[in-house]
Amino acid sequence: MATEANKKSNKDWWHHSVVYQIYPRSFYDSNGDGIGDIPGITMKLDYLKKLGADIIWLSPIYDSPNYDNGYDIRDYQRIMTEFGTMKDFDVLLREMKKRELKLVMDLVVNHTSDEHPWFIESKKGKDNPYRDFYHWQPGTDGHPPNKWRACFGGSCWTYDILTGEYYLHTFTEKQPDLNWENPRVREEVYKIMRWWLDKGVDGFRMDVINFISKVPGYPEGSFIDDGQYTDGSRFFINGPTVHQHLQEMHEKVLQHYNVVTVGECPGAHLKDAELFSSPARKELNMIFTFEHMDLDGGKWTPKLLNLRVLKRFFTTWQQGLYKKGWNSLYWNNHDQPRIVSRWGNDSEPYRVISAKMLATCLHFLCGTPYIYQGEEIGMTNVRFPSLADYRDIETTNFHRDAVNQGLPLDTIMAAVYAKSRDNARTPVQWSGQLPHGGFSEGAVDVSPWIGVNPNYTYINVEQALSDPQSIFYYYQKLVELRRQMPIIVHGKYDILHEENTHIFMYKRSNDNGQELIVACNFSQQPIKIDDNQLSQRLRNHKQILISNYEQKGKEDWLDFRPYEAWALETA
């Protein structure tokens, strides 16, 4: 356990950090079996250090049947065999500490696997001591307790023939929800957290942590789609005791360690974020919101992004949490499509320049930036020819439901190409010359667990490291600027030209009179803004901090080329 001196030293160190997320199964395969693993991560630590990452966040590496790629945990204190051993993990942790890299683990405690010993015991009978570790309810007239729809489709309830009751699972039937109202459950979770923190990990990303409290009685939701299911999310998201549980977690565990916590909080809005991340409330350090991830349509109903709406989102959160809480800044993660395909342009010649534009837009904001593996080289969405090539349970469930609804195949596949989680889960492309993009060490004949994007021949780490103008070195410079300039971390945010439909422009300033202006053209079209006063200020800038175009001799900073981005220190 951390000493009081260590706990208080370097307070809020995560304000100044940049996080790199690793999805281990797809990062690097060290033993040639087609599956990324822990030794593979260790082998690439120098690459991550070169990029400038401070914190490495690992998606789940615990023992799991892998029904939902590790988010169904069977044993929280064992390593998934495919990923290696606990000895491999200890080597990784030791090598990270040598390089002054911090490690954040994915804590998945809204639910377990149905193969977890707690659930196996829970199913044995209504009088079993583990029965109330989970949510069990009798049915109504031979039907589930309510018609809530699960997040991945289908009912939230599964019938157990042995005991004649239903158990709750807000995701799949292989992921039963824990009953956080049971103090024994909470204490078992705290034991797991202490065990990993005492090993030396530096914090947790908490999976769907705002799902842990359910409204008593499981009230019926509002009907959706064809009336078969209801939306019960308001009864299991941000429930009545969620803040009480997180405050207890802080009191019993987190306050005793100098760590960082980030909560994945679907459905959370600004006011929720204030509650979760306010230092005075002693819950979490920051949360992931999904508001901006929902601006281009529903999960499987994509639409064009309205930039003004995106700007309003960022402005609301940047100003609303300023000196009240803390923002997590991200475009990509293991559940989202690749941002350059989503809101940039993954066609040549615009892929590199639009990827740099998106990076500029995000990394000058106030908050902790997250880089998802492959983002730093501009990896794109994939278009597999057949649904059989996809591995994501959410995608296959969508296909099943869409077929049942009579949607045509081309409509189904267009949605999959745009929004499938497997877009983010194809293997990292290390080489343009080696088979499967160099994902597997020494393997030629073994195929990866999921196919490599065919564009690995020209989008890969080797190419990026050999090109001084690559996306990789652009990200490296953004990380360096954040370290060098406290105004990026702590400065005030103000939006400029808010109603412009193509340009996202904002100002960062501090009490010392320092000022930065950041501008990003989200359009493939040249755009010109008429603002003589601002144009004069920009001509008199102190220095160009970064730009994705050569700016030598530029006269009019408000005359934007396609996807042009720049950041200037103006005062």
TrEMBL record:
Pfam families per the UniProt record, alphabetical: Alpha-amylase
A GO term, aspect molecular function: alpha-amylase activity
CDD domains for the chain: AmyAc_SI_OligoGlu_DGase (cd11333)
Keyword field contains Glycosyltransferase: no
Gene3D superfamilies linked to this entry: Glycosidases, Golgi alpha-mannosidase II, Oligo-1,6-glucosidase, Domain 2
InterPro entries found in the cross-reference section: GH, GH13_cat_dom, Glyco_hydro_b, O16G_dom_2
Keywords: Glycosidase, Hydrolase
Ranges where the Glycosyl hydrolase family 13 catalytic domain occurs: 21-425
Signal peptide per UniProt: none
GO terms of biological process kind: oligosaccharide catabolic process
Similarity comment: Belongs to the glycosyl hydrolase 13 family.
Listed NCBIfam families: PRK10933.1 (NF008183)
Name by which UniProt lists this protein: Glycosyl hydrolase family 13 catalytic domain-containing protein
